[in-house]
Amino acid sequence: xxxxxxxxxxxxxxxxxxxxxxxxxxxxxxxxxxxxxxxxxxxxxxxxxxxxxxxxxxxxxxxxxxxxxxxxxxxxxxxxxxxxxxxxxxxxxxxxxxxxxxxxxxxxxxxxxxxxxxxxxxxxxxxxxxxxxxxxxxxxxxxxxxxxxxxxxxxxxxxxxxxxxxxxxxxxxxxxxxxxxxxxxxxxxx
Length: 190
Known about the structure:
- By secondary structure, this protein is an alpha/beta fold.
- The chain has one domain (2-189): Spore Coat Polysaccharide Biosynthesis Protein SpsA, Chain A, CATH 3.90.550.10.
- Helices cover 23% and strands 22% of the residues.
- It has a six-stranded mixed beta sheet with strand order 2-1-3-6-5-7, sandwiched between helices. The chain has a three-stranded mixed beta sheet with strand order 4-9-8.
- Strand 1 (2-7), helix 1 (15-28) and strand 2 form a beta-alpha-beta unit.
- The radius of gyration is 16 Å and the shape is globular.
- The termini are far apart.
- The relative contact order is 0.19.
């Protein structure tokens, strides 16, 4: 059993982003999934709501994608039994070397959520840049090293399976090489 998971809480993204991700998963990822799960309940707010994935999905094979990704090709390369996140080679040295735009794991990783949930105010203050540093400093993980890139550093279309748009998601409102991967009519929404 394979779950594809995303989180759509707050006001940054709305349901068109979920529809767009599902379209890309269905048409380009080559993932043979059983469930497409969307977390919509706001628990902590902001990126911290992403931690709910570890509480809600404690069995089977799971893969999480941020909504502001462009899936171009086979994502089976990201299916891992051990907890995996992206190696953020593009980040400045002051920041964590992880990026949680793609997360994959099998089985129960609820300890990640449980630890944060013990004192969320403390962890949100300590890890004010988001959950990447929280995972990096507190939980055993492995990293994806290939198959993805950040649009922050590689803006032309190259042979990456997934492009992470991170803080550049507004670029997807404009026409570009990514148009052929997006849900038809996606850009008309904005």
